Amino acid sequence: MSKKDKPGRHQRMLAAYGFGLFSLPRYREIRGEGWQIRHHLPSMSEGYLTPSFVEGNRFVLYQGRRPWMSTGLFEVESHAFHVHAAHGLVVVAGLGMGMYAFAACAKPQVERVVVVERDAAVIAMFSAAAGLETWPDRHKLIIVQADALDAALAERLTEPCQGRAADYFYADIWPLTPDATAPPQAGAMVRALAPKAAGWWGQELNFGQWCLERRRPIDGAALADYAALCGVPIPADAGYAAFCRDVAAVNHALIAPRPPRRRPWWRRFFGAGSENLNSGAAAPPDGPAP
Ligand SMILES: C[S@@+](CC[C@H](N)C(=O)[O-])C[C@H]1O[C@@H](n2cnc3c(N)ncnc32)[C@H](O)[C@@H]1O
């Protein structure tokens, strides 16, 4: 599912937010050590910005039986802003299927893309699965095998980045969103690398959740506060704030604060006194951290 598959959706996003979808490499199925990329047939699906729809053919990256990502619309819509933000020297944490790397390399505004990937098997599978030898802009891509959360990350990247700070840093090292560890981990990587601008996968959902917990409107002012709190220089504008608002509306059920669970009525009558019975009665809402 890409810009070419969905020209109408691409144009609507461009008009509403100032950025749209992007093209993907041509994938093929492959098995690596502990990982594989499998083809999936069309099925009902949910987008990031688009509610339920019929998803066409897609490829899914698995580690064992655990899905990490796919080439479906959810992934393309959730990467779209970060592809738009890519320019100059781009540093990326998490190779996955190389979907972002391909789209960033394809942009004329991007000079070099340095991807940090922890897993050697992912790197080994990627070039064959994504047809790297056919990428017109493959000369821009450098892959470094390293843990993006390692304290020595900046040192590992000095040579591939030619001693320069990244113009855009994009972190995508999580299989699910919203993930409460993503904002602090993205903040830690930003502190290590000091990029000029940065973002992480799923940041719109973390941000939307933060706003809903505080009953704040999802707008540019809240986004500036949230980016400062996380220590991530998100290159936001009015179009991006509108995108965050719309993504939060589509995913409201995922990010709305959960109401405290009521104690079942029958506990009052049948020995409700024990601490254990009460322990789940008023689950606190998710923590206040970014
Ligand atoms: C969801 S995929 C990335 C998808 C990618 N954005 C794309 O467009 O194809 C996440 C990747 O992050 C890698 N990863 C997870 N933790 C990591 C870490 N600490 N450092 C580097 N890579 C990591 C995983 O092995 C996986 O390849």
Explain the overall architecture:
The protein is of the alpha/beta class and 290 residues long. It has one domain: Rossmann fold. It has helices at 7-17, 73-85, 99-105, 120-129, 153-157, 182-193, 203-214, 220-230, 238-250, 252-255, 275-278, and strands at 30-31, 35-40, 43-45, 53-55, 58-63, 66-70, 88-93, 110-117, 141-145, 168-171, 198-200. The longest helix is centred in the N-terminal third of the chain and has 13 residues, at 73-85. The protein binds S-adenosylmethionine (SAM). S-adenosylmethionine is lined by residues 68-69, 79, 93-100, 116-119, 122, 147-149, 172-173, 175. S-adenosylmethionine (SAM) binds at residues 68-69, 79, 93-100, 116-119, 122, 147-149, 172-173, 175. This is Spermidine synthase.
List keywords for this structure.
290 residues, alpha/beta, Rossmann fold, 5-stranded parallel beta sheet, 4-stranded antiparallel beta sheet, disordered C terminus, binds S-adenosylmethionine, SAM-dependent_MTases_sf, Spermidine synthase
Please summarize what this structure is.
The chain is an alpha/beta fold. It has helices spanning 7-17, 73-85, 99-105, 120-129, 153-157, 182-193, 203-214, 220-230, 238-250, 252-255, 275-278; strands at 30-31, 35-40, 43-45, 53-55, 58-63, 66-70, 88-93, 110-117, 141-145, 168-171, 198-200. Strands 9-8-7-10-11 form a 5-stranded parallel beta sheet, sandwiched between helices. The protein has a 4-stranded antiparallel beta sheet with strand order 1-2-5-6, with helices on one face. The chain has a two-stranded antiparallel sheet with strand order 3-4.
